[in-house]
Structures are given as structure tokens and as C-alpha cells.
Here is the input.
Amino acid sequence: MVNINWRTINVDLLDPESPANFPTSTLAPAVPPVSASEVQSLASQIKQLLRGGDSEGALRGALENPPYGGDAAAKEVHLATVVEILQSIKQSEMSPMLSKIYGSDGGVEVLDVLMKYLYKGMSHTSQPSSASTRSLSPQSTGFSQIHSRGGGEGGGQAMSVLLSWHEKLVEIAAGPGSIVRVMSDRRTV
Here is the structure.
């Protein structure tokens, strides 16, 4: 019998469903590239709708055109636009608007994109900025205070808005299935 070190055999190559046997790039759909100037022009059109009082149209316009193929700067501009729209909508208008979007054609996909922006917005508002990390004030307890008691630069208010949108979105329209779809989707906003 031949001396074979069984530990060196790559068993993944023998499995037909192994990622080594097919390109993993086929798992994510192809998205067209988007330039920052295209996102900027879309943001100005959406803000025009918002100034005109059509907050639902502005929200749909922002969520139906996410810059999946854009660079980081384009995605940041679009995130800022979406957060601005969400902050401008009154809490009493949230539930009817979400129900209306959910009932429309493609409403589930639009609300999944909203969930993506909520999570991205929460991740950005919870990260302390570089300016605030320079001004850490050590406490007598050994902990450091990162932000002032007022919430720093308004990050607490933005987080509150995003959390209330998340609550309404899960409660009224999308449910926990939206969270699973967003977490498993490879396209990022």
C-alpha cells in the first residue's frame, strides 16, 4: 500500500457543490456602475420632491434607485439623502406610508432596501467621529466619556429616528423576513 497523508487531500475539490468548483461571483447579481455625479443629480431631484411636500414620492424615489454599483462616496451621498428624508417625515405619517408602499407593486423589495439603509445609518451614527475620540474625558470610575451628555453632534436624534422607522417597518410591513433577506443579500447600499 502507498503511504498517503490523508490530511493533505483537499476534499472540497471532490464535492461537486463546493465553492471551489464554481465561481462565487455568480452568487451576486451584476449591477451597473453608478458615478457619484449620477447619485448627486438623483439626490437633488429627490430633495426637490421633498421640498414640494411629496415625502412618499421622495422616499420611493430614493429607495427604488439604490446605487449598488457606486463607489463609497456615492453610497454616502445616497445614505445622507435617505436619512434626511426619513428625518423629515412625521411619526404619525410613518405607518400609513409603509402600509401603502408595502401594498404596491415591488413594495417588499423597496422596504428591504429601506431596511438596508436603516442598518447602514445605524452603523454610521453609532461610530464615534475622529474629533470626538480626541476629546475623551477620563472618569474617576476608569471609563471614558466619548460624547457629551447632550448626545454629541445630534447622533442620538438620528439614531432615534432610525430606530422608530425600524420598529414600524418590522411591525407593520416587512416583518422579520425582511431582516433575514437584508442580512443575506450580497448587494450593499
